[in-house]
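Work Package 4 report. The design task specified in the project plan requires that, given a folded chain encoded as structure tokens, an amino acid be chosen for each position. We show below one input record used in the internal validation round.
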């Protein structure tokens, strides 16, 4: 992987989507230049800064100051932090503010926050007056390497995550890796799971970079962090550019997510946070791939070692085959009852395969002989109810 050693250098990634193309900028200190960046994007007039209480405490004042200094009229909307905010009710709240402040088609929304704020703001921007421009300023690692890139926006429904939404591309994604310094540790480490995922699905040299620099990454070294953020954005945007609406290629982004989502839903979205579930999912999807003959034991070992070195969980909690299989079948990505799983062939290449129920059962049975289950986090479905 190409390394950039200077921590002030700006990295620009162009996301090629025809008329909806845009740039992702990665630069330490970028948050102080938001006024100039919006001006460069030819935005004028009103800017609605959508954020949550945690971010507002750290960044809202300085962000409002730089935007006002650049001549914008700034209207903040501060929502409670956390997934529970990702609802139509919050979108309605945002709509009320925009209507009251007389936002026009030419006004702009700015998402200042993690994936929750980014997804919600992108969706609000898609529907207010049938669409107004928006800019992403992602502040969590998950948002910087994953949710802010790709154009999937939306909110949750009480019956399921991300059930309501729209594809909507931003005008720009403005990433300041220095903002990660205030991110809670557990959230930061969980985001690394997605970075490791990009290495496995598309770039062995990114994986190797994380292996070799894990200590400086965990110490939040600015250069190392900027490098992994930039490379992850490149990979996601390459995949998305080839397949904006999730027909086929984009499915490789789900590596670790077939088992990961199942563990999340079995835990009632309470035990493991997303990146932790994905970390376990990656290790065991790789192990399943090895069982099915797609990859060598070495792939599984390297992956488990890196997941552990990152401080992410790497052991499958106690779960019955029945519970696991039915949870995997509820995933949105399942079509016509077939469960597709992304399996690694090597570190850096994957393929998508349909899972056979008997083979998967056989894998879990032999796995349990080798590795007795640990009791934690994930309860069986029946106990959750
Ligand atoms: N659109 C997509 O393609 C896509 C992809 C992946 C995830 N997502 C969505 O993203 C959401 C998860 O994103 P997330 O992990 O960023 O969650 P989040 O937005 O809830 O942020 C996690 C927590 O960290 C806090 N936080 C964020 N940045 C901070 C900072 N710099 N300093 C201090 N605190 C900070 C937030 O206030 C929150 O409490 C989920 O809703 C998921 O569905 C979407
Ligand atoms: Zn994910």
């Amino acid at each position: 992987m190409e390394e950039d050693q200077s921590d002030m250098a700006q990295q620009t990634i162009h996301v090629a989507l025809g008329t909806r193309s845009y740039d992702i900028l990665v630069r330490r200190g970028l948050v102080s230049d938001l006024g100039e960046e919006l001006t460069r994007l030819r935005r004028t007039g009103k800017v609605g800064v959508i954020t949550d209480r945690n971010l507002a405490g750290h960044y809202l004042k300085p962000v409002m100051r730089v935007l006002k200094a650049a001549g914008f009229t700034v209207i903040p909307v501060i929502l409670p932090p956390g997934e529970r905010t990702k609802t139509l009710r919050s979108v309605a709240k945002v709509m009320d503010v925009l209507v009251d402040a007389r936002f026009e088609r030419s006004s702009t929304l700015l998402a200042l926050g993690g994936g929750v704020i980014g997804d919600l703001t992108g969706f609000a921007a898609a529907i207010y007056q049938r669409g107004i421009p928006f800019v992403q300023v992602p502040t969590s690692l998950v948002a910087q390497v994953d949710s802010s890139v790709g154009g999937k926006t939306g909110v949750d429904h009480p019956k399921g995550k991300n059930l309501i939404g729209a594809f909507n591309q931003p005008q720009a994604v403005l990433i300041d890796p220095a903002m990660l310094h205030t991110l809670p540790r557990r959230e930061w480490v969980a985001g690394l799971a997605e970075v490791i995922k990009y290495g496995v699905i598309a770039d062995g040299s990114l994986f190797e970079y994380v292996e070799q620099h894990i200590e400086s990454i965990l110490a939040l070294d600015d250069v190392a962090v900027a490098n992994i953020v930039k490379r992850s954005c490149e990979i996601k945007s390459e995949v998305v550019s080839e397949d904006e609406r999730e027909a086929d290629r984009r499915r490789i982004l789900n590596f670790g997510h077939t088992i990961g989502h199942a563990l999340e839903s079995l835990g009632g979205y309470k035990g493991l946070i997303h990146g932790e579930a994905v970390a376990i999912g990656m290790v065991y999807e790789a192990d399943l791939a090895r069982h099915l003959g797609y990859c060598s034991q070495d792939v599984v070992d390297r992956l488990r070692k890196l997941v552990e070195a990152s401080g992410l969980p790497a052991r499958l909690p106690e779960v019955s085959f029945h519970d696991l299989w039915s949870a995997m079948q509820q995933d949105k990505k399942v079509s016509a009852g077939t469960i597709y799983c992304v399996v690694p062939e090597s570190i850096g290449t994957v393929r998508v395969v349909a899972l056979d129920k008997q083979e998967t059962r056989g894998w879990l049975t032999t796995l349990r002989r080798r590795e007795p289950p640990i009791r934690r986090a994930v309860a069986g479905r029946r106990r959750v109810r």
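Residues 321 and 365 are 8 Å apart (CA to CA). Validation will be extended to a larger panel in the next phase.
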